[in-house]
Design brief:
Elements (H helix, E strand, L loop, with lengths): L1 H21 L4 E3 L12 E4 L8 H9 L3 H20 L2 E4 L2 H11 L4 E2 L6 H6 L6 H9 L4 E5 L9 H14 L5 E5 L15 H10 L5 E3 L8 H6 L3 E4 L8 H8 L4 E4 L2 H7 L3 E4 L4 H13 L1 H15 L4 H15 L10
Parallel strand pairs: 1-2, 2-3, 3-4, 5-6, 5-8, 6-7, 8-9, 9-10
Helix pairs in contact: 7-8, 7-12, 10-13, 12-13
């Protein structure tokens, strides 16, 4: 918190002078926080749903994470003021923009993040040996993927509780849940504690089903997606969720918690369930995995939907916002 406070103090006191010295026409603030008195028009990129999430604050209190809870409240207060300070605030989805508008009472624009299909699928080099070994071990199983380091808001516990239920719904099939993290202290970024999640895996008796791949290099991550049968996310707070687009581009059907953000990103390429309902999650996953026709239909819709996300379109829309707020004419829109 001291580091964040020091950075905030530096930005608010010293950055305006640097902006004036540079002769800038417009400022783009890309880290959720804005200058209180920017000397030029300011466009704020806001993309942290945890500041608005009652679920997250309740989750932190239930875990006894009071320091993180207080830190989130403090950051949320500055994030809210930042929307008011900025001339224009941009969110990566319309759903999150609507949340910000309700929270602050100020209009918020929405510009989807992009996705570089060519870059994502370009690297054909080998997976790390340990990841390859674990994938090969799970080769004769139904493989369900979740891409994230461990944190609280991705709601791993609901996913874990669904595995025994899914096992019952798919008798005779072996199930493996592949995670791109490890449920051990020191193996994940941030201050999230993994002990309770690891204990839940043991208590549920699903240690054999949960495969901890650990972090996978981005350049070969597509190989993991394409080695799996289904992508699942249980997040209770989200602003965009890049792994959803990666999964769809890889031709994976998706089962996602029923958030407005998830519905906006995936549309009809996914099936949805109430975010804390493990039984409904298992039901949606079983429906897709038990039906070849439904699986193929969802996979094709996923590939089509993923093509809607492009970085050239994202950049063009951001640049037009900057031009408008600097007094310049917008450029031609990219379809």
């Amino acid at each position: 918190m001291a580091g964040a406070a020091g950075r905030f103090w530096f930005e608010q006191i010293h950055l305006p002078a640097l902006i004036r010295k540079a002769g800038a026409d417009v400022l783009i603030s890309a880290g959720n926080f804005a200058l209180r008195k920017s000397p030029v028009p300011q466009v704020l990129l806001s993309g942290n749903s945890l500041y608005l999430s009652e679920d997250f604050r309740g989750d932190l209190r239930s875990r006894g994470e009071y320091s993180m809870w207080l830190d989130t409240l403090a950051r949320a207060s500055v994030a809210k003021r930042s929307v008011l300070w900025a001339d224009c605030t941009v969110s990566p989805t319309r759903a999150f923009a609507d949340q910000l508008q309700r929270w602050t009472g100020k209009a918020v624009a929405a510009v989807h993040h992009g996705f570089d299909h060519e870059l994502f699928f370009r690297e054909q080099g080998p997976l790390p040996a340990d990841v390859r070994r674990k994938l090969d071990w799970a080769g004769d199983c139904v493989r369900i993927l979740h891409v994230s380091h461990y944190n609280y808001f991705r709601n791993f516990e609901t996913l874990f509780r669904a595995i025994p239920l899914l096992r019952q719904k798919l008798p005779g099939k072996k199930i493996r849940l592949l995670l791109t993290c490890k449920l051990r202290e020191g193996e994940n970024p941030g201050a999230y504690k993994t002990q309770a999640a690891a204990a839940l895996v043991e208590r549920l008796g699903i240690g054999a089903e949960v495969v901890e791949l650990g972090a996978v290099p981005y350049r070969v991550l597509h190989q993991v997606y394409r080695a799996c049968d289904l992508y699942v996310t249980c997040s209770y707070a989200e602003t965009f969720a890049h792994p959803l687009v990666e999964a769809m581009a890889s031709g994976l059907p998706v089962v996602a918690s029923d958030l407005a953000v998830h519905r906006e990103v995936c549309e009809d390429a996914a099936e949805y369930f109430p975010r804390f309902n493990s039984s409904a999650l298992a039901e949606r996953a079983a429906e897709i995995l038990a039906s070849g026709d439904l699986w193929s239909s969802k996979a094709e819709r996923a590939r089509i939907r993923a093509r809607a996300f492009r970085w050239d379109k994202h950049v063009a829309e951001i640049v037009d916002l900057l031009r408008r707020h600097s007094g310049l004419q917008p450029a031609r829109q990219i379809a």
